[in-house]
Structure formats: C-alpha cells, structure tokens
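Translate structure to sequence.
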C-alpha cells in the first residue's frame, strides 16, 4: 500500500513530524513501513519553462531547436519530442541537473546547434510506465497554463512529496485507504483527522427510481448494493491534482470517470464501478450467480467462461460486470457516454477471491473486496463519486439512491478489564490512561469497576475479541514503552529425567564407538514401515500423503537407516556407522494411537581399525558386542539373553538374534538379508533395534559401591569341541549354574570351525575367573568348582573337552 505524505497532510497536521519519523511511528505502532521514498530527492535545477519558439533542425526529420524562457534567462534546447510546440509550459532540466539513472544534463552541441538543457518527459523524470497517463506516454509533459515560469517544477509534478510504502498484514485491510491510515496516524499522534464534507446538489426534478431498480439473488452473496446516477457528464481528463494522487498510489490515470472511482477507492477503501447507463438497455440491475459455461466479455476484450462460483451484475438478463472484479465491454464508459451509473457494493469475500483467482484478474478493487469492506462508507463512497463527477464533468446528480435492503451493520462491542490489559501487557496502566488511548483510537467506551466496554467502529472490522482490544491498547501505548521484566520464578536445580539420562548415556557410548547420529523420515511406504518392526501391529497411514513414498508412519527405525546408508553409498561413502533414537508408531485401535521410543543402529563396510592399521570387516559379533556393551550400562534385575531368530522379515535367517530381558522381547540384532543389501547397493550390513521404553521401564539393581577385593583370584581355561548347533548362551548358562559361589566371570576367547574340525563341530575356549571377597581362595575350592563345570558340560552336551 502506497501512501502520499502530502495527501495525508490534508487530514492531519504533520508539520511537526517528517515522513521518516512518521514511518517510524507507524512501524512501532504495528503497521510495518517497508520504505519511505522522497520523490524529489536529488532533483535540482528542475524549473518551469515556456517554449517561445520551436523550429525544425536542418537535416533532421524530428529534432527541433527551441528557445525556452526559464524566468531569468532564455535557453536554447534541442528537443526530439513529437508534441513539442510553441507556447507550451514544460519541465526544463537545466545544465547540472541529475536525472534518474545518474544521467547528468550537460551543455552539448547536436547537429551543429547548441543545447543548454533538456525538456523532460515523465519517463525521464523517473515515473513508471505503468502510471504515466496515455496522453503523456509519447513526448514531453505539458504543464497547466497557470504554472509560473522559472519556479521549481517539482511541486507541479508532485515530486515535492514522499511516498510511505506499507507491508500490510491481512487483518489490517482498514489501512488500505487514506482515511484508514489517517485514523491510524491520528491515534499515534494524538490528533483527530478532519475530512471534507460531501455536499450533494441533486436534480430534484428526477428520481433514480425513474431510471432503474436494483435487486439481488442472495443477500449472503451481496451484503449491500447501491447505485447513483449522474447525467449530462462530459468525459475528459481528470484534474492534475487527482492524477498526481493516483500516480503516487501506483494507479494510471485514464479519464475523469475511471479516475474518480479509483480516487474514491483510495480515499475510502470502497471499490466502485461505473457503467454507461444507456448501454445497460434496461431499467433493472440484478445480481446473481453465473451459470456454468456462461460467456462474458470483460473490459480487456477477453471472453470468459464462467461458473456458479462467479457472481455477476446483470441488466436482468445478461451479465454487464463480474462482481468485485471487472466490468464488461458491453457497458464500458466512452467519450460518448453522458449518463453514468455508479455502483457501490459489498460482495462475499470468498466469491470475489475465487473469481479473481480462477480468471487471473487480481486488481486493487478485488484485493479490497477479498480482505473486507467498511460497510458504513458504502453510501458515502457513492455520494462522493457522484459529487466529483458532477463537479468536474459538468453533470447533474439524479436524486436518490437505488439500493437493496441488505443486512444491517451489526454493532460490535468488546468487553475486557483493566486487570486483563495490564496482565497481558505486563504494564500498570491506570483507568485514565486506558481511556485516553481508546479516545485516540476514536472508540466509544465506558469503564466501570475496572470493566471496559468498547464500541468498535465499522472501519475496524478486525477487532472482535478482548485480546484484539488489548493489542490496540498496546500498539498505541507503544510496544517500546512496555516495561521489560525478567521472569520471576523459583530457582530449582535442574537435572535430567531418567529417560533423558539414558538417552545421553547411549549417545555418548555409541559415538565413542565411532557411530554418527542420523535423523530419518518418520513416513515410509507401508511395506518399509512394517518390515523390521520389533512387535507386529496395525500401522497408521495418512489420508492425504504428499507422495506414495511417504504414506505410513514407521514401526521401525532400521528401514530409514537403510535409506540413509544407500544415500551415503551413492555418494562414495563405503564405511557407514549410524544410529538413531526416535519414535515408532502403532494404531492400537480406531481411537487409540500410540508412539514409542526406539534405538537402532546400522554398520556396514570396514569402519573399525586395529592398532597396526588393518581394517576389520564388520560381522555378527561386532554388532552383538556393541549391543552387549550398550546393555551393560544398565544393571537390570532380569538377565539379558539372545535367541536365534530364523523368521524375521528382511533379516538373515542364520545371523539374527532376538534380545530378551528376562522373558520380555526388547529388540533384535543381526545381518540384513543379502538380497536386500544388494538391492540397496550395500555390502554385508548389520543392524540392531531396541525398545528404549522397555529399557527405561525395566527394574534395575541399585548400584552399590564395594571395596576392592584384597584377596587374589584364580582362573581356569577350558576348550570344548561341541556340535555346531550348540550356542554360546547355552554353554554359558550351564557354566553359571555349576560354577559355585566364587565364579565371577566367563569369557569366550576363542571360536574355531575351520580345518581339522569336523563340519558339524566347532571349537570354543573359555576363561573362567574365580574370587572370594572374604578370604584367599584355596586350590581345592577352585578345582572342585572346575570339575563340577566339566561334569555338567559332559552331561548336558555331546562334547569333548580338549
């Protein structure tokens, strides 16, 4: 929204505040000013001149040598404009003037003729092509005859003005008019705006009812509709003062009638449309929904195909305008028009928005209809337009207004309290201070026993609830004036929750082992979302997914890590070690949706290095050792065990183990199936996934700190040749059960199944540690326990002790 500082000065006394300072006040008050543009800045040596003579330059078809009176001297100037003629008042840039584009005017010689300046066009003075009037597009700009020779030309062009450009939020559509901004400035500056009264001189010999009647199909679509008529109008150019205001607001002057409707829209915020009454060929105006496929040619001579989402103005039969968007070619104002029908209305915002968007016809008018209209000024806008057209076009206003019985403007009252205002603002405003602010806003109000009842004027239709009123008080009081307080809270020592502490310990351990944290999408395909789930269950899917690859909330994290590994592999990263802690999701029932915390990791390639620089390939024992180390962080009351899992989807049937805490399944680990790894361009890839919720909730042994054992311990090694199907966990369980009270550690230090070993056998070797915290162990005690272990192993398994 572009606001002219000079135009605003017609309503308020701005003599004590500069445009830049006013812009700062607006921004601090909640209306953000994007920039202030001093139109005349840098324009020196621009004066009014009169062309005394204009003769053709010998040898040129278009150049003219002129003599121009600039007050204190007569300058020879070469001009190439086609409309350059003797007797014209023009804008002269004297030698030394600097025009837009850093173009400096210099004394020069053109085709043997001396030129001491330039006669300017609006384009050369920096005006945009989009706002230059048609009559001034080709050639120099001609000033009115009352322009004084030798005076500064800037005021005649409106270059003595400053434009304030707002970046308005959608809720502040009231500021899309000069009067709306004037009310805002008045509140900020503690002034009262003064607007010119409308003085209508109607022709009482005729009534508007003799010319037409108006009706609407639905008052929900058309909330208000009024028409005024002005006869015997002479269509010509609008006055220069009006053209300057339009151009500074970014609108091109067209002709008197169009310019008046745009001027009223800018002043009051009420879009208008003018019809050639005689072209309506009817005494009836009827507003209705268009029919599907109905054809209509708009002012831009484009035929439009309409639908029932479009609202049209008709002459009772055929459309003559698209409501709130654009008029029709069949009722366009021309130089022959003498009777003008002025439409002032309020249409349903959603209909205007749909029509403008569907037909790509966004305009200043449609944007105002979309955001809202002050219904209290609908009649005033029609009256002001009729007055201006009659005064400037020599017409007569036909008495009366054709109108519908629309919905009345509802009175809006908002209630709040002084306590609530101060509570939300963090201030200590008194009753008198709040009352003063509401007076500055021109809100009628009453305050009794701390309760405030404010009557909101129709021009501020954005204020509906108490919080809106509090915001208004805060804006005018000044956000920068609200005292700044540090929050006063009880000082409580901070600490991590149990779940947070567990997550931090896990992250530290995994990262110390070379893993990097990853974050993957929670949305996958339904197949991937379910494939690696620890527990089976119904999945939750989106009703309107953005793509077919992101339809279902995950029940596992591994699928996302595989996608991440594939991406890294495609970018020449071969050794990958990732972990992620995140949520998985289950649809427990139609009404019950649950999410759980999981931990997963993925290893592939050769991310580990031995002391002497030899890379060590990842295998099953690497991932299992990582899980054992991780779970050893927690002193569970129940024991951890691992069981072979042959049927887990997506996993290697012989290299996958489920992890149990007591009898409860808390996760699994192993190698993803080679076919799946190949499909994702990965080498042998090992993963694990655990339920963090189950780990956090599990009962744990309270840590006890004991003195170091002062007595020496003892150890025994045992090598076994067993069936290949016997697991380490089974052997360890037997050793623990028969090792006695002094067995403290069982360590598997060798596993062999190569040459010199039968194919259905394997060799395993254990180191067993024994300690007595109360006395020195006797050889007999250790030997007896060791013999018991050997006997139990021989009895339990088909093995050979080597």
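Result:
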């Amino acid at each position: 929204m572009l606001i002219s500082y000079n135009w605003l000065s017609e309503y308020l006394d701005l003599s004590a505040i500069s445009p830049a300072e006013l812009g700062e006040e607006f921004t601090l008050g909640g209306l953000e000013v994007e920039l202030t543009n001093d139109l005349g800045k840098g324009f020196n040596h621009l004066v009014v001149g009169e062309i005394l003579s204009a003769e053709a330059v010998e040898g040129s078809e278009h150049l003219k040598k002129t003599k121009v009176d600039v007050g204190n001297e007569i300058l020879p100037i070469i001009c190439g404009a086609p409309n350059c003629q003797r007797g014209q008042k023009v804008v002269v840039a004297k030698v030394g003037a600097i025009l837009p584009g850093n173009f400096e005017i210099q004394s020069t010689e053109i085709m043997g003729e001396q030129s001491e300046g330039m006669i300017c066009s609006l384009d050369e003075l920096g005006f945009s092509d989009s706002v230059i009037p048609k009559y001034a597009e080709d050639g120099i700009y001609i000033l009115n005859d009352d322009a004084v020779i030798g005076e500064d030309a800037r005021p005649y062009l409106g270059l003595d003005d400053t434009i304030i450009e707002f970046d308005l939020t959608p809720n502040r559509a009231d500021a899309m008019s000069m009067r709306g901004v004037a009310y805002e400035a008045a509140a900020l500056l503690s002034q009262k705006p003064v607007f010119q009264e409308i003085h209508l001189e109607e022709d009482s010999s005729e009534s508007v009812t003799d010319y037409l009647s108006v009706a609407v199909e639905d008052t929900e679509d058309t909330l208000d509709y009024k028409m005024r008529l002005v006869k015997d109008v002479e269509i010509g150019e609008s006055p220069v003062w009006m053209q300057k205001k339009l151009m500074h607001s970014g609108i091109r002057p067209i002709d008197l009638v169009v310019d008046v409707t745009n001027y009223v829209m800018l002043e009051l915020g009420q879009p208008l449309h003018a019809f050639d009454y005689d072209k309506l060929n009817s005494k009836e105006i009827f507003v209705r929904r268009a029919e599907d496929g109905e054809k209509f040619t708009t002012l831009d001579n484009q035929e439009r195909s309409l639908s029932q989402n479009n609202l049209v103005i008709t002459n009772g039969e055929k459309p003559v305008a698209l409501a709130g968007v654009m008029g029709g070619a069949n009722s366009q104002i021309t130089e022959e028009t003498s009777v003008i029908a002025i439409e002032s209305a309020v249409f349903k915002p959603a209909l205007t928005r749909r029509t403008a968007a569907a037909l790509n016809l966004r305009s200043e008018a449609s944007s105002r209809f979309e955001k809202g209209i002050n219904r209290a000024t609908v009649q005033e806008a029609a009256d002001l337009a009729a007055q201006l057209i009659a005064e400037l076009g020599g017409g007569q206003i036909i008495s009366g207004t054709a109108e519908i019985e629309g919905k009345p403007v509802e009175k809006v009252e908002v209630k709040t309290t002084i306590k609530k205002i101060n509570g939300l603002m963090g201030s200590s405003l008194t009753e008198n201070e709040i009352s003063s602010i509401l007076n500055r806003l021109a809100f009628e109000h009453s305050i009794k026993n701390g309760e405030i009842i404010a009557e909101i004027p129709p021009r501020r239709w954005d204020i509906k609830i108490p919080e809106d009123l509090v915001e208004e008080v805060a804006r005018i009081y000044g956000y920068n004036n609200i005292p700044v307080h540090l929050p006063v809270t009880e000082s409580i020592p901070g600490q991590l929750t149990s779940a947070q502490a567990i997550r931090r310990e896990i992250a530290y351990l995994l990262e110390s082992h070379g893993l990097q944290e990853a974050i993957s999408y929670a949305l996958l395909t339904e197949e991937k979302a379910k494939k690696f789930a620890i527990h089976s269950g119904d999945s939750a899917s989106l009703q309107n997914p953005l793509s077919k690859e992101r339809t279902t909330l995950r029940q596992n994290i591994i699928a996302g890590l595989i996608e991440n590994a594939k991406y890294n592999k495609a970018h020449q990263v071969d050794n990958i070690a990732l972990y992620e802690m995140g949520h998985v999701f289950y649809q427990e029932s139609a009404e019950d949706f649950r999410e759980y915390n999981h931990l997963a990791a993925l290893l592939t390639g050769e991310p580990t290095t031995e002391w002497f620089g030899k890379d060590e390939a990842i295998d099953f024992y690497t991932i299992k050792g990582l899980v054992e180390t991780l779970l050893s962080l927690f002193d569970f009351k129940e024991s951890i065990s691992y069981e072979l899992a042959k049927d887990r989807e997506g996993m290697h049937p012989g290299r996958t183990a489920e992890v149990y805490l007591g009898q409860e399944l808390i996760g699994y680990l192993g190698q993803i199936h080679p076919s799946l790894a190949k499909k994702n361009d990965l080498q042998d890839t090992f993963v694990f996934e655990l339920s963090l919720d189950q780990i956090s909730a599990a009962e744990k042994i309270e840590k006890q700190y004991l003195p170091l054992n002062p007595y020496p311990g003892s150890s025994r090694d045992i090598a076994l040749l067993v069936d290949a199907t016997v697991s380490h966990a089974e052997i360890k369980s037997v050793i623990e059960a028969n090792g006695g009270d002094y067995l403290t550690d069982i360590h598997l230090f060798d596993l062999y199944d190569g040459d010199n070993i039968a194919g259905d056998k394997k060799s395993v070797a254990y180191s067993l540690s024994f300690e007595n915290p109360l006395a020195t162990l006797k050889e007999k005690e250790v030997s007896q326990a060791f013999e018991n272990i050997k006997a139990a192993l021989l009895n339990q398994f088909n093995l050979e002790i080597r």
